[in-house]
Amino acid sequence: MNCNADDRLYTPKLARIIQASQLTESERLFRLRFPDGEGLGHKPGQFLELSVLGVGEAPITIASPPDEDGCFEVCVRKVGNVTSALHRLSEGDLVGIRGPLGRGFPLEELKDHDLLFVAGGIGIIPLRPVIKSVLARKSEFGRVILFYGMKHPDEWLFRDEFAQWEARGADVRVTVDRPVAGWDGHVGVVTTLLAEFQMCGEMIASLIVGPPVMYKFVLLGLSAKGLRDHKTFLSLERHMKCGLGKCGHCQINGVLVCRQGPTFSYAELKDLREALLG
Amino acid sequence: MRAISVDNLSRWLDNIAQGVSVWVPQDIEGTRLLAPYHTGDEISLGGPCRLSAKEFVFPKTEYMLRFEYHKSPDDPENVTIDLKSAMEAPRTIAFGITPCDVQGIKFLDEVFAWQGSGVESCGPQGYQDPYFKARRANCLLVAVSCLEPDNTCFCQSMGGSPVEAPGADLLLTRINHEYVIEVLTKRGGELIVETLCRELDKSEADALESAKRKAGERQELLWGPQEVEDLAPRLGEAFEHRDWKPISANCYSCGICTYLCPTCHCFNIADEARGSQGGRMRCWDTCMFPLYSLEASGHNPREALMKRYRNRIEHKFNYLIASKHVFGCVGCGRCVRHCPAGLDLRQVVLHFLKLDLKEVTT
Prior knowledge:
The complex is a heterodimer of chains A (278) and B (362). With 278 residues, chain A is an alpha/beta fold. Chain A has two domains: 5-101, Elongation Factor Tu (Ef-tu), domain 3, CATH 2.40.30.10; 107-269, 3-Layer(aba) Sandwich (Rossmann fold). Chain A is built from seven helices and 15 strands. Chain A has a seven-stranded mixed β-sheet, sandwiched between helices. The relative contact order of chain A is 0.14. Chain B has one domain (2-354). In chain B, strand 8 and strand 9 form a beta hairpin. Chain B has an eight-stranded mixed β-sheet, with helices on both faces. With 362 residues, chain B is α+β, with helices and mostly antiparallel strands. In chain B, helix 6 (225-237) crosses helix 9. Chain B has helices at 9-16, 99-112, 130-137, 186-189, 202-217, 225-237, 244-248, 256-260, 305-324, 334-338, 345-354; strands at residues 2-5, 21-28, 31-36, 61-71, 79-85, 92-97, 139-144, 170-175, 178-183, 197-199, 267-274, 277-284. The interface between A and B is large, with 51 and 60 residues.
């Protein structure tokens, strides 16, 4: 989208649901395509505004890496009006798309770095396109480590893909918050995985997405291990209504998350009041 | 320079209202409001209206899109959607607005029609709001000097003036039984009807200057030029101050301050549908409502009243200075006059300006 007064800024482009699959009890994955075959042209970490016309529009992170045969994916938890209406749609139905919007993760600046991904719950969704993009070009990056924490094993998103990611060289650790019958993996919040994490130096970057309380403790843990603030990246959830920096809902201090974010380095957020839990 | 007699005003309005919607301040059941002008209407010029003039460029509710679902009769599974813009930009003249309202619209230009000045951190591309731009292009602003400011007015403290209106197309100033007309733009000049006006001579121009000077002197300055520079950093330092809580405690979160404010511009976007068709609209919203910043996850960064109130003040006097180099307040005094809890934004800002911040935080 260029700098112009085009009224298409607020007008969604219609996309068709190619495939819809229920991943967990509350999350559904939708594969979408514009009828004209044009791609979305996004970067990992960007978001879009998704419309179910007649119900409304909501900001949704893009779940797929760029350039998948003109298709793109969103993985949506059923929470409010728009997401509930979206869950009722199926293959062949039309939704409206505005985007890509916001700033993605600075992947090109992270070449040759060891990458640590920390995801909590549905925080894996915005990281999935980064992980897939990195693993597709694994030789350009160093080690790839993924720590994924969830409350209950039933909430494990993209479970079948984790094995593929390991096969491609990612070091993956998964944990659930509390002991659950039938779970013989690691138990404890995701920060407990950081204890066994041994890396230091300038060439390490971390990408973290999860709830506010997770940010608080993971950031403390990573700082304690000497990770650099300007190489620690996270994605903020805010109520991004217009996605164009106009409506004001996502304002934090002098920052509009939908334009300057939603991804930020910790260095950018450290002194930004109200951005993270105190 | 020209002047028009008060007795000729309605003739002038009749003349310029050809094919254009002209809105003028009128006394409606005791309240001065901008309303569409019809021949014979009594107008009430001088001083601010209850509502600001932002509605002309940013209406309370505005349709953005219209849509209609179509089912193919032969194949009911095959649904298509027609989507079209609902952009409207009627030719409008806002006649008799105050200089502070002109300032407010200039502020909205920075937000909605941003062209790359300021907000460098947003990156090289800014989005220009198409709905705002279209309305703004078709709206002429005729301002009237405030010769007797209200005791809640503080436009001069915010860098404005009750008697100058840069950004307007015409400025009228009442001198005795006439309005002196200053032409500020070419399209403003095109509104002049020569036969209804007379040319002013040199001595009368001096009378205008003197009337303006006197009007300016009637308003007390809240702070000096040096203190203005201190406002943003002082409020930045005061962010954690314990006084925010008692100061905001009386606020009802009713949002009337944002509703009346010429610079507040938050909006929500919502769909309305009946059967297979409907529209998408945007409507004014307010950061004073607790649900305003609620996220889908349930997390709400500004749920507490104190945080919402503080954000409103910090946004206007601190954050916008950093991001756009302007204050988000034009000193119109509406929020002071109409706050049901009696909160006075001037006193709040002065409180933190005068306070010894080193003494106590948190």
